[in-house]
Structures are given as structure tokens and as C-alpha cells.
Amino acid sequence: MSRIVEGKVVVVTGAGGGIGRDIALAYAAAGAKVIVNDIGASVSGEGGDAGPAQRVVDEIRAAGGEAAANTDSVSDAAAAQRIVASALDHFGRIDVVINNAGILRDRFFHKMSVDEFDSVVKVHLYGSYFVSRAAATPFKEQNGGCFVHMTSTSGLIGNFGQANYSAAKLGIMALSKSIALDMQKFGVRSNCIAPFAWSRMIGSIPTETDAEKARVERMKQMTPAKIAPLAVALAADSAADVTGQVFAVRNNEIFLMSQPRPVRSVQRGEGWTPDTVLNHALPALKGSFFGLDRSSDVFTWDPV
């Protein structure tokens, strides 16, 4: 791997395993100094263990790289400030933030508790905001920086039993676009990746039916290491003009995902009434309606 991020300092949240670990290792191999953040919690967010973050740090150091561990939670604003401060304290600057930390508490919407909704949104959406906001000040002061946020096709397209996760992940896409717009004048860029990869979180997907079992077996082919090349490339100086975009990575495929835009319109010079909406507008627009698709309904072919 070429050292395309030589000397840069990157914070990778949720880097004790899975996608985050592989991104942290890839950044180190490409020349970056890495803050490996992970609280060591379960997939659903319980518990805490400093071991996972430190083990990844040890891997990086054993390979000749520079890294330090951090076990603060992204879901707390003060703790997020400490995550960013850890980069400044250890390496004197911060250049890249990878917002990867997450949990799952899947439940059908009509059964989902307030805590199940709140906890997932707090880690994914608030966590991405808290860490990004903490890094925004040094990025602005140094006139440069790069955010890479993990979104999901569960939010971009849809999925069963994940209203909490889907809402958070679609919110992250909007957060990233807003950061890109607001901070472009300071040389700061912000992009999203929707990863397809086997991980602890994906491993918690129910496999009660043959279709669900087959889907999980396909997912196992897509290793977390497949996400890392794009995550590293987005921080390279040669990608300085790439911002406000949403990508997906599925095994050896990289997709540029669409963003909401008008599809079709109707108008009446005299304005609308409920009756004319029902008799004119909705029938005219119906041909362009979107179905109740899930991610697996859109990505129907086997990964290459």
C-alpha cells in the first residue's frame, strides 16, 4: 500500500473490531498515526472493555506504525471532546475523523421501546455529531480536515426491524452533507460510506427463515477489509475535491449513491383542493412512486 496519508492523524471510532479495526490498520499502513477508539461494549451497547482498542494499537505498533488507544464513548459530548483531545495530546493535530462506532437494537417498529430507539440514535447520529463537532474547531483553525461517516442502505433504502438504526443512518447522510456545505470554505470535506460487510452487528441479524440464512451467508463473503481502501482514499490530498458524496462498498464494488431530487411534478394554476389532489395529482404522480423496497430488494445480485 502506498503511503498516501503519510503523517496525517486519524481518529477511528468503534475501531476495536470489524470495519473500524480494518480501517485503522489500513490508515496506519498508509502512513497515518491512529487514535483507536472503542469502549469495548457488546453489539447492543452494554458493558465496556479497554482490551479491543489496545489490541488494535498493539497490532499497529507491531507493524511499525504509531497508534494510541481511547475508550471514551461517542454518545456523550464531553467524552467526544476527549476523543479529539486524545489525538491532539498524542500526536499534536487531527486530520481525519472516521465516524464508525455503532450498536444495534433491532425490533419491529410497533414493538420498539423508547430506550431501543434512543440508544441507537444516540450512538450513531449523536455520536457522529459529537465527534465531528469536537473536530470541527481544529479543522477550521488549520484550514483543512476530512470526515468519513458510516451510513447504511438500511437508511438510504430501507429494512425491516430497524427504524432506530435506519433513522440514525439516514440522518448521518444529511449531517455529512451539511458539514460539507458549511465547512467547504475552510478546506474541510465530508463524505459517507454505506458498507456491506460481515461484522458483529451484521452477525446479530435474525436467521429464522431460509431467505434470511441465505442472505447472511452472502454477507459473510464481504469482509470488513473491503471497506478500508475507500475510507483511506477519501482522506488523501488527491481527493480534496471529493465532498458531500455518499458511496457504498459491496465486496469488490464501489457505488456512488443517489441523493434525493425531484422526480416528477404537477401543477394547477388555481391551486389545489383535497379533491383535485386525489383526482389529479396522485394519479399523475403514481407512476413514479417508489415501492417499499429493502436494501436486499435493490442489491439483488451476488457480490463480485
TrEMBL record:
Residues 8-204 form the Ketoreductase domain. SUPFAM superfamilies: NAD(P)-binding Rossmann-fold domains. It comes from the Bacteria. Pfam families: adh_short (PF00106). Transmembrane segments: none annotated. Belongs to the short-chain dehydrogenases/reductases (SDR) family. This is Dehydrogenase with different specificities. It comes from Piscinibacter sakaiensis.
